[in-house]
Amino acid sequence: MDDVKTSSAVPGDRTPDTPREPMVVIDGVNKHFGDLHVLRDINLTVGRGEVVVVLGPSGSGKSTLCRAINRLETIESGTISIDGKQLPEEGKPLAQLRADVGMVFQSFNLFAHKTIRDNVTLGPIKVRKKSKSEADQQATQLLERVGVEAQADKYPAQLSGGQQQRVAIARSLAMGPKVMLFDEPTSALDPEMVNEVLDVMVGLAKEGMTMIVVTHEMGFARKAADRVVFMADGQIVEVGTPQEFFTSPKSERAKDFLGKILTH
């Protein structure tokens, strides 16, 4: 069940699903932190252009899985492939493949001493070898796309948390990633800033970006996800469309989780 590549639901106004070419393939992945088995035989295939939202209680392994996909966390067994290429363990090949995987964290991780524009152009110039003028032009377009073009010459400390997170998304997009990973991207934000970031993410979903999103934002999962992956105790417990998961979860663990989340 956890490697299904299609879904019958059509979230938002996304196109109806057809069989998708695999973009991310996670096969038999295990990870320990000491005696704690944080990822237990994880198998999941994410199709090109698919949005998968990973839900579950704290400590279920969601963020570890997200970080393992571009080797920010090592794994002990199993394989992870991006667009048909298996992730190397280290070295230049890993850096090259990692450049195809955008990552947005809870904290914004912007360079405090660089302007917003410089934060967005640094990767394309250093890694993608773009000219400064080309990178600047792209940065202007991306900052406009995420709604912070007026802040281009400011420094991160001069922006709100929501604005900084939108810059972080633009910075990832500037690398032309094949897949975007989001690890609790709104959890550090004040409540009034959450929607401005989620709106950008919904826009990316509608444009067909392959996305794996770890979040507690149930509204985003309902609106933008093709599939919901529910994790608990380091395992994938169930996978389904948002409609299936939120209206008729199959496992007792998911029913208990939703009962606690949706009544608050």
Automatic annotation (TrEMBL):
Residues 1-21 are annotated as: Disordered. Gene3D superfamilies: P-loop containing nucleotide triphosphate hydrolases. Keywords: Amino-acid transport, ATP-binding, Cell membrane, Membrane, Nucleotide-binding, Transport. SUPFAM superfamilies: P-loop containing nucleoside triphosphate hydrolases (SSF52540). It is an enzyme of class 7 (translocase). Transmembrane segments: none annotated. Residues 24-258 form the ABC transporter domain. CDD domains: ABC_HisP_GlnQ (cd03262). It catalyses: a polar amino acid(out) + ATP + H2O = a polar amino acid(in) + ADP + phosphate + H(+). One of its GO terms (cellular component) is plasma membrane. It is a peripheral membrane protein. Its EC number is 7.4.2.1. It is found in: Cell membrane. Its main location: membrane. The keyword Cell membrane applies. InterPro entries: AAA+_ATPase, ABC_ATPase_HisP-typ, ABC_transporter-like_ATP-bd, ABC_transporter-like_CS, MetN_ABC_transporter-like, P-loop_NTPase. One of its GO terms (molecular function) is ATP hydrolysis activity. PROSITE patterns: ABC_TRANSPORTER_1, ABC_TRANSPORTER_2. Belongs to the ABC transporter superfamily. This is ABC-type polar-amino-acid transporter.
